[in-house]
Amino acid sequence: MFQLVLGVLVIGLVYVLLVETLFKKSQCKGKREMSGRTVIITGGNTGIGKATAMELAGRGARVILACRNQQKAESAISDIMKVTGSTDVVYMQLDLSSLRSVRSFTEIFLKAEPRLDLLINNAGLIADGRTEDGFGIEFGVNHLGHFLLTCLLLDRLKESPEGRVITMSSMAHRWGKIDFDALVANKDLGTGRYSWQFFQAYCNSKLCNVLFTHELAKRLKGTNVTCYSVHPGIVKTELSRHVSLWQKVFIEPVAWLLFLDPTTGAQTTLHCALQEGIEPLSGRYFSCCAAQDVSAKAKDDAVAKKLWEVSERLSGLC
Ligand SMILES: NC(=O)c1ccc[n+]([C@@H]2O[C@H](COP(=O)([O-])OP(=O)(O)OC[C@H]3O[C@@H](n4cnc5c(N)ncnc54)[C@H](OP(=O)(O)O)[C@@H]3O)[C@@H](O)[C@H]2O)c1
Ligand SMILES: *[C@@H]1O[C@H](CO)[C@@H](O)[C@H](O)[C@H]1NC(C)=O
Question: Residue 195 pLDDT more than 70?
């Protein structure tokens, strides 16, 4: 009997501890005006991106879902319109695993849309494989595609009175490594031989997202554009869709008990989009609706600068 009570107590304590740390919830309180403003959200058809699109559309923004699958995007748009009453949500084709697609997206966007106020680099994946241009898929989609997209849209963002760029990272960036030699040799960060399948490559790409934002903020000094990287929390989405069955057996029960729902998972992104007065924090990493400290490797000036220059070359910008 005593053991049973003790067991229940310990489980309860661990649960409370987890809910207060790794799975902590937060709430965006920002009130920045969104009507008349245009937002691009990459991968806005599901998960955190869709929840973000829902809120921004509800606040009157013109929302462009930059997605690779038209059918999925259109079904998300009809959900968003039904819930928010907005009629200003549109689909534009973007496949981040193709630099050609990124270029054609920006060409069409810049011709069709007179303004851009907020770019949310949300799309991301954990998967195995290569992009159209031969890069490791996580480096290519999570970092390089968004790098090129952002660079090609910067001039339009600078015309906005207060443009912002938000890039989804993850706490997984802590386990990331940037190996420039491997990048040159393999078109991927790392050796390609990972103990935990493609998880290491995911962490590497998420470290790129933090370093990209760090360097971008410097390059944006003196403009009205600011930028932020985000850990959304651990959120129940389709992100684990390519994870193997035996890993899912472990993830699913925890997910059911503890993972945040996508609306809660969108709060830190929304904070970076809507909170007034965070401009002095440009370049920083946010989670739980607040700027957080990162380790030295995630704010290394020299590595961030080199990653930027290498990315310019790899994406064909120079
Ligand atoms: N869920 C978490 O716990 C968690 C934690 C930390 C960080 N994050 C980050 O949060 C972001 C959103 O993830 P999520 O959890 O909402 O995952 P999700 O439900 O899997 O959504 C990912 C989105 O990215 C899109 N996408 C993937 N590859 C693409 C490509 N090549 N071109 C264009 N779009 C592409 C997907 O489109 P399709 O539907 O067509 O595949 C989907 O819309 C990601 O950057 C992820 O790394 C998530
Ligand atoms: C940048 O911000 C300043 C101060 O808010 C404002 O006066 C100026 O018009 C803005 N620039 C643009 C391009 O909107």
Answer: no
